[in-house]
Structures are given as structure tokens and as C-alpha cells.
Write a structure and sequence with these properties.
The chain is of the alpha+beta class. The strands form two sheets. The protein has a four-stranded mixed sheet with strand order 3-4-6-7. A three-stranded antiparallel sheet has the order 2-1-5. A hairpin with an 8-residue loop joins strand 6 and strand 7.
Length: 128
């Protein structure tokens, strides 16, 4: 995986929701991994008015950028795309959790149900 420089990171952080979503899908499929943040209790969560969500990022740099303030004890952890498909989609569905894709610093990101997220990943994989 190539390291992103600060200029590229700043530019991508300013993408709108759809641009971040598209960037996420391309990066995840290219690198074959999804990034989450974890602490001693497991995966960190974000909450919308309707859903409890697991935030996911396309690269380690973006996940680590969230590990500040109350989340400064969190560590970025990668999950292989194969493991995501085989375990995480069903696990999130069973726990009635959604996925928030590449949230920005204002906690805005596209929220998808696990099966929708899996469908979008699979669709992107077929494009390669």
C-alpha cells in the first residue's frame, strides 16, 4: 500500500460524501483491506439518529486521523476483504449494526446496511 502524503490526505478529506464513498470503494478493492478503529472493548462505533454504525476507512492514515480526543487510545486495524465478506457482513447483520463509509471529521458519511455495503464492494470488485 502506498503512503498518502499530507496534501493528498487533506484533498481527499474535503471530498463530498459521494466522492469519499467512491474513493473508499476503489482503494479497498485495490488494497484488499478495510480499516477500522479498535479499543479494549472492540470496534469503535458512531451513532446516527436511527442506526448504530461501525465506521470504516479506506487507508490506515484516515483511520488514524480519527484516533484523537476521546478516541486517542484507539488503534487502526485492517481487515482483509475476504474476512469482511466471510465474517463481518453476517456479524454486523446479526448485531443489527450499519456501516458508515469513510466518515469525515464532522462524522458525515454514507450509511449502509451490511448487505448493501457487501453488494457495493462486490460490484466494485467485478469492475477490476
Amino acid at each position: 500500500m502506498s503512503q498518502l502524503d499530507q496534501q493528498a490526505t487533506d484533498k481527499i478529506q474535503n471530498y463530498n460524501e459521494e466522492e469519499r464513498f467512491n474513493y473508499f470503494m476503489k482503494e479497498v478493492v485495490a488494497n484488499r483491506q478495510i480499516w477500522i478503529l479498535t479499543d479494549e472493548h472492540g470496534c469503535v462505533m458512531l451513532n446516527t439518529e436511527e442506526e448504530d454504525c461501525v465506521p470504516v476507512w479506506p487507508n490506515q492514515e484516515f483511520a488514524e486521523a480519527w484516533a484523537t480526543g476521546e478516541w486517542d487510545v484507539c488503534k487502526a486495524e485492517s481487515i482483509s476483504l475476504n474476512k469482511w465478506h466471510s465474517r463481518w457482513t453476517n456479524g454486523l447483520e446479526d448485531d443489527e449494526l450499519a456501516v458508515v463509509v469513510f466518515p469525515n471529521q464532522n462524522e458525515e458519511g454514507q450509511v449502509l446496511f451490511p448487505d448493501e455495503f457487501d453488494f457495493e464492494l462486490t460490484k466494485q470488485e467485478r469492475k477490476r
